[in-house]
Amino acid sequence: MAATDGAIAPCFQCGVCTAACPWGLLQDEPANVRQILRRAQLGIPESDGAIWWCATCRACEVMCPRGVPIAEVMLTLRNLAWQDGAVPKGLSSVLWSLHWDGNPWRRPPSQREAWTKGAEVKPFEPTDEILYYVGCTPSYDNRSQKVARALAGVLNAAGVSFGTLGEREPCCGDAAYGLGQHDYLRQIIAANVKLFAEAGVGTLVAVSPHCYDMFLNHYPRENGLQPLHYTQYLAQLIDEERLRFQEPLEAKVTFHDACYLGRRNDVYDPPRQVLAAIPGVTLVEMPRNREDALCCGGGGGRMWMETAAEERFANLRVADAAETGADILATACPHCIACLEDSLKLAGSPMRVMDVAEVAAAALGIGRSAQ
Fold first, then answer.
1. In whole angstroms, how far apart are CA 110 and each of 106, 115, 168, 325?
2. What is the CATH class of 245-363?
3. Is the dihedral of CA 121, 162, 283, 310 positive or negative?
4. Which of 73, 197, 320, 328 is exposed most, by the fewest CB atoms within 10 A?
5. What's the whole-number average pLDDT of the chain?
6. pTM over 0.90
7. Closest Cα partner for 337 from 361, 319, 314?
8. Helices 230-239 and 269-276 meet at what angle, rounded to 10?
């Protein structure tokens, strides 16, 4: 109870959280969220590993009649597990990689700019309109590197003056946050605040909703940092008529709301505004959309843990998308892309997963085509 600063106290054991948890759609005996919360209230140590199943999607919080911040409670319990040495095998290596290499991908900082091959990008200057914050996954993951290049192309097409921190770009700390390593996260934030201040960063545009969420909700507000998710910034450029799509892109598109963009930060309209601005794009919604969208399963550190192929949330999400008859399943999150593409391969569907930035770039004739 004390570790959560009393946040768990309002829970009156209604069980709605357990019913709302996506694991109930895939497992015969899913994690009993209500029971986890009750044990936390009573100070009984967690022993079955159930806290590590949480993807921090906050679907349970939407339904909770008492407003309990369930995802944060789960992360607090994980923090206690670190203190007790009761952490699943393999997670320590993720944080050691973050410590030594500055990213959870176990890749050297010298490779952080590998994504820039073929892209027009320069070092950030204080006079630039924005700092283009790429993040770890788009910097190191081969698939997400395409998204980073696509977005750079769109920003250049709109005439935006921007730059990156290159090899100096730090991890935002999302991996430490999702795995519940609160003490280390505080160190990461302090170092990054100092770096951004020295670099003269004001407006920061992030590729990943996870990075955007970190900067918006976990960094000090008084440091002058103004974080935006890139879909918010592109929507702003469209409103200002700086970003215009002239040629039609004939495609039927359905959009998957990333949890860290939607439920966590109420950013639902900007991605749809970008897609709707492209001539020829027909936007169709899945039944479970916006606040009711199904999680891909990659949040809350789950990207760094193994999930059985038959128990992946993304399997259900891909089925949702297929029912719309869409050609393209669009999203705006690197973790979602990874999870959805894996499930799409299992389903054998001809539908393609694309980031909104890739769809926009294709409409502008940049890079990968959606045709």
1. 12, 12, 9, 43
2. alpha beta
3. positive
4. 197
5. 93
6. yes
7. 314
8. 50
pLDDT in tens, 132-157: 999 999 999 999 999 999 999 999 99
Give start-end residues of each CATH 3.40.50.10700 domain in the chain: 245-363
Least confident of 18-32, 155-169, 335-349, 353-367: 18-32
C-alpha distances out from residue 24 to 16, 243, 244, 312, Å? 12, 43, 44, 12
Neighbour tally for 47: CB within 10 Å: 9
Query: Identity (one letter) of the amino acid at 29?
Result: E
Give the model's pLDDT for residue 2. 66
**Would you state the pLDDT for residue 29?**
80
- Per-residue tokens: 100: 């030594």
Separation between Cα atoms, residue 165 and residue 169, nearest integer Å: 5
| 71-120 tens-digit pLDDT | 999 999 999 999 988 899 999 999 999 999 999 999 999 999 999 998 99
Rounded CA gap, 86 and 155, in Å?
45
- pLDDT of 1 reads 59
Token pair, residue 147, equals 């998204």
> In this predicted model, what pLDDT tens digit does every residue of 296-337 receive, in sequence order?
999 999 889 888 888 899 999 999 999 999 999 999 999 999
Record the tokens describing residue 129, joined without a space. 């309109």
Q: Tokens representing 109?
A: 């900082």
Q: Which fold has domain 91-237?
A: Rossmann fold (3.40.50)
Question: Cα-flanking dihedrals φ and ψ of residue 180, to 5°?
Answer: 80, 15
Report which residue type is found at 347. A
Question: Residue written as tokens 């440091």?
Answer: 223
Residue 205 structure tokens: 């545009």
Q: Which amino acid is at 278?
A: I
C-alpha of 315 from chain center: 18
